[in-house]
Structure formats: C-alpha cells, structure tokens
Amino acid sequence: MAAPSCTSVYIQLCVSGIAYYFTVLLLSRNRPTIYLDNFNVVSNSLTNNATIYLDLRIQNENSGIAIYYEDPVKLTITYLQSTVSTGSNVIIERSAIKGFYQGNGEVKHIQASVVIQDLFSTNEQRRRLGETRVSLYGPVKVMDFVVDLEADIKFKSIENKKFHLMVGSAVEVNDNTGTSVLKTIQMKYASGSNKWGVLQWLLAFPLVILLEVVVNSAFWLAFRVLVFVSLCQPNDTAEI
C-alpha cells in the first residue's frame, strides 16, 4: 500500500518542479549588468587633441533567456570641467552603436574611441600629457567624466515587450597618467535594479500554483483518455 502513495508524492513533486521552472522561465527578467573597463585619456601637447579609449562589458545575467539590443545603442561621454558652473560641462561624444543579439549568460565586449580637438584649455593641456606618463606639477589631480549608455532591449520569450535601459557612471581619470582611478566601474541604472527583488518572487507564487493546477489537470485528463482508449479496444481473444 505504501508504493502507490510514494509514487503519488513523487509525481506531485515533479509537477511542482515543472510548474516552478516554467514560472521562473516566464517571469524572470534580470536586466544586464554593465561594466566600464579601462577608461583612458591620451592627450597630445603638439596637436592639442585628446583621444579617449574605453571598453564596455555587458553581462547577460539570465541563464535561460537571450536579449536583443535594438539599433542603435546610444553612448554619451561628458567632460566635467573644473569650474563651479555645471553649465560648463562638455558633451564630447554621442555614439550610435549597432544593435546586437546576446545569448543567455553571454558577455559582450564593446570597444570605443573618440578623438576630441581643444577639449582642454591651454593651461590645462600643459599638465595633461597622458602619452608621457610623467607627473609635471604638484600632487596628482583627477579629471571628471560621465559615461551614459541608453538602449531598448527585448527578452527572447513569448512576451514581446520592450524595455528601456539607462545606465551611467562617473569616472575619475588620473591627471598625469590619463588612466581611470578605478580600473573597473559598474554602471548604475537610473532607476530600479537589474536583479529580481523579493516582492517579484513573492508575486510569482500565485502563478506557480496556477501552473501546477493546469499541469495536474493535464495529467489527469491524459490518464482518463488512456483509460478510455484501453477500455474501448476490442477483445480479440479467440473463443475455444
């Protein structure tokens, strides 16, 4: 008598697991984690030009869902001048990066560079020789930049919904070497989080129960159909 009971419990656990798996698959939508790596500024004292190099590292945090990044992905770099007025900030680059597809759990690397003329004043340029890597005047200072990334994405699922991403990060660059003070910076979202919160997981439980009822009903219906088919089969036993 114990065997049927154990089998029933085992089937129920399997059904619950299937329902939970499909619930997570349908609902989990972790936004990508985006890092800014190796932000470098190289200035040329002869031409008064500056070249900015940066690497973007985009991590798809979803183990079972791919992401489509629609064209274009917008990259903006702003230089914060060392003045009191915020109106003196200079947007030095607005780039349009071609959209791309990112598989589940994949990492996408994007390298970008931009050449700017007359970014710094003459006095500033004298001490910003990133190409020499030599400290010329007094203690080390920093240059301040802001990097923003904006994109429209879609998750590869039955839900055809578009999400708008806005991330940004402040970058401090060593005045003498031209390299960022922090080698890797995680860009922050303008609002919300890129991870599922506790409330979202709690709201998923009603759907788990609903899917479990649906799966149980499907198994029950399939069993009844099999029983009906077996009873309707003709008896081919020969009479003696």
UniProtKB/TrEMBL annotation:
<dbReference type="InterPro" id="IPR044839">
    <property type="entry name" value="NDR1-like"/>
</dbReference>
<protein>
    <recommendedName>
        <fullName>Late embryogenesis abundant protein LEA-2 subgroup domain-containing protein</fullName>
    </recommendedName>
</protein>
<dbReference type="GO" id="GO:0098542">
    <property type="term" value="P:defense response to other organism"/>
</dbReference>
<feature type="transmembrane region" description="Helical">
    <location>
        <begin position="7"/>
        <end position="27"/>
    </location>
</feature>
<dbReference type="GO" id="GO:0009506">
    <property type="term" value="C:plasmodesma"/>
</dbReference>
<dbReference type="GO" id="GO:0005886">
    <property type="term" value="C:plasma membrane"/>
</dbReference>
<keyword id="KW-0812">Transmembrane</keyword>
<keyword id="KW-1133">Transmembrane helix</keyword>
<keyword id="KW-0472">Membrane</keyword>
<feature type="transmembrane region" description="Helical">
    <location>
        <begin position="198"/>
        <end position="223"/>
    </location>
</feature>
